[in-house]
Design the sequence.
């Protein structure tokens, strides 16, 4: 029994250590960005509207961390006028050139990995998955990188009537599947990924 307890305690300790690994902010602090350029997001999902919806959620959490954020829709328009109308082309372009074009210190690249609603039995699960990367505007070196996945599963209220509850749950699931609301999940993903101390970036010079 004592041996089993010791093994369990050791596994628990190792597991706990694995979840408390701190990020190395050496490169980020050395670059010391004051402004961040958020470029159009790459969409790896089948929802063609996902990029525009997502862009409306990302400026606030970055600016609240204390960084100047260039207006995302203005950035998109300027890039289109410069011949970079496709997000994939923007992401493959020189980070240094992008920063030179806007006068920014760093670039935030985002990929939408998940933006879907999956129906199973009498529940619908809405998922938003994102990949974030910040690169230095002078060297193109990756300063920070993180992923975020947020899910919501439709539910029904417990009325005490089994048949009524099943019907309510089924209706809620159908409504969620027909018109999933991704915006709250995108905002939640952004909030989680920029938490500091945690996975997020250190506070910038304009942090209140």
Sequence:
């Amino acid at each position: 029994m004592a041996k089993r307890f010791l093994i369990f305690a050791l596994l628990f300790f190792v597991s706990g250590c694995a979840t408390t690994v701190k990020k190395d902010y050496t490169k980020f602090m050395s670059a010391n960005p004051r402004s961040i350029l958020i470029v159009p997001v790459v969409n790896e999902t089948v929802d063609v509207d996902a990029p525009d919806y997502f862009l409306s959620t990302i400026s606030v959490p970055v600016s609240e961390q204390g960084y100047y954020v260039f207006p995302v829709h203005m950035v998109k328009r300027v890039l289109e006028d410069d011949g970079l109308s496709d997000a994939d082309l923007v992401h493959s372009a020189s980070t240094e050139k992008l920063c030179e074009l806007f006068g920014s210190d760093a670039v935030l690249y985002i990929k939408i990995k998940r933006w879907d609603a999956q129906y199973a039995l009498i529940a619908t699960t809405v998922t938003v998955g994102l990949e974030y990367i910040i690169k230095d505007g002078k060297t193109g070196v990756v300063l920070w990188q993180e992923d975020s996945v947020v899910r919501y599963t439709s539910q029904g209220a417990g009325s005490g009537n089994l048949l009524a509850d099943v019907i309510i749950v089924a209706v809620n699931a159908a409504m969620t599947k027909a018109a999933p609301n991704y915006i709250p999940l995108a905002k939640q993903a952004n909030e989680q990924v920029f938490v500091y101390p945690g996975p997020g970036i250190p506070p910038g010079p304009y942090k209140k």
User: Anything to note?
Assistant: The chain is about 45% helix and 25% strand. The chain has a mean pLDDT of 82.
